[in-house]
């Protein structure tokens, strides 16, 4: 294109189409000292198949980070820092909401592995969750003993811990001991 030529004419619809050139990442990949980082394909497969974090309330982000680090520690490229390796591999460990969260972060906002862990834990293990768990621990009270004997020996309630469908449950045992009675009365078992 010469100096006097006008740029190609574009319509508004052209700007609405997805463009791979505009793709961005919230992770700025650190420079590496080797020509090319080669993460073994089986490591990527292991991460995507075994430790996916979805961002669900039932998932533990600390456990996820621990498992992720354990996998990353299984291989080492000469001249590649831990940050470079983990920052390249971490997006493969996220799925669904968690992956959407990572993509929603500002472009280039994560530059170190420590920064990635901090943002991840701030999102999925925030101070409010820590405070709630701490409060639950501090307010914990043991429930009163249901069997009626406060000084029961550890083996006294063994039958109660068995399969409810078996003939050895507490109810069935009491039923058998009382000669087959089915009065439905509550029965206290002391030293059974």
Question: In terms of topology, how is this protein built?
Answer:
Layout: H1 12-16, H2 41-50, H3 61-72, H4 82-89, H5 96-104, H6 113-124, H7 127-138, H8 170-177
What is this structure, in a nutshell?
With 192 residues, this protein is an all-alpha fold. Helix content is 40%, strand content 0%.
Uncertain stretches of 5 or more adjacent residues: 152-192
Order of helices and strands: HHHHHHHH
Largest sheet: none
User: What's the N-to-C terminus distance?
Assistant: 96 Å
Give the radius of gyration: 30 Å
Description:
This protein is mainly α and 192 residues long. It folds into 2 domains: 23-138, no CATH class; 144-192, no CATH class. It has helices spanning 12-16, 41-50, 61-72, 82-89, 96-104, 113-124, 127-138, 170-177. It is extended. The model is unreliable at 152-192 (pLDDT under 50).
Spell out the key features of this protein.
disordered C terminus; 2 domains; about 40% helix; about 190 residues; mainly alpha
